[in-house]
Amino acid sequence: MSNKKKEVKESPLMNNIKSLAFPLLSILISIFVAVFFVIWAKPEFSLLDYPKAFVDLFDNIWKGSFGNTKKMLDTLIYVTPLLFTGVAHSLAFRTGLFNIGVEGQFALGMIGAALVGMIPGLPMLIHIPLMIIAGIVFGGLWAAIPGYLKAKIGANEVVNTIMMNYIALYLINFVVLRTAFGIPNAAKTYDIQASAQMPKIMVELSRGSWGIAIAVIFAILAYILLWKTTIGYELRAVGINPHASEYGGINISKNTVLSMVLSGAIAGIGGAMQVAGTAHNITDYVSLPGYGFDGIAVALLAKNNPIACIASALLFGALRASSRTLQLNGIPKEIISLIQAIIIIFVAIDFVYRWLGKRKKKGAIVNG
Asked: CA-CA 20 to 30 A from 328: which of 92, 150, 244, 301?
């Protein structure tokens, strides 16, 4: 009887259900708490009107993100970069690395793609793939630097990638403001060629492009890489236990650099798709776009699963897209940040709980 119970506990289905339970619970709790702020912001609601406030919040989020075809397509504008950055973070997290530099790698992918996108006379079938390659090169190389420093001298990747975000910011501003690629006195680059622009899903309704399809394809490819290849097995093994991996013959330094390069490359492709599908040029930045930092939340909610990042990015993209509708209906847009923050807190609690559980098991084994 005990063996049967053990089999049920260790079955893949039960593990998947357990892994989904906490993210779903964190979403529900975040919305539950956010409703109290709706009550506080709108005088017509009291605590007794909690159900009405809940319906009001959910209704406005839905209308602002999926209310009609145009809203749905506009939501994809936010979902696409979040999916790329979420997958980029997932690849690094799986190897035990905290790649805060996804923000800078995304931005470098944008500038690389913009420079390639300005080349005249290329057909679309060549131009767009060249922009993707530019995103891979710029993002991957930018991530390779902190990856190499981590592998060779043990330099902390968090500190290095944060510094490189600011270097990326000023490098982009230099290109925009101080080179021939920028329009004089306009604080932006020239638009990319029409052949470099990603086709829109419905031109007459929205700027939402087919870049979302590229994002989904790369999310699937990242999943296949991590769980269906030897390279992915080594990356995950290093993330789970680097000492045991090294004892088993896995090269930790190589996989550290590889993980950072792959993470940066995915982020760079996201930047390329942002230019090809939505922006079509680069402006100077006071601060970076923020998609890389939001990608952390996407990856954490998805439990570092690239496929689950699709649903996670859709959630956070929908929240971003609905902020204007919330404001127009008397609900502060900061509620979106509140919901995101509560989700991250509860997902972090889950990680701490699992870490403490592992420590407890190790202690029991040692004492036993």
From this structure: 301
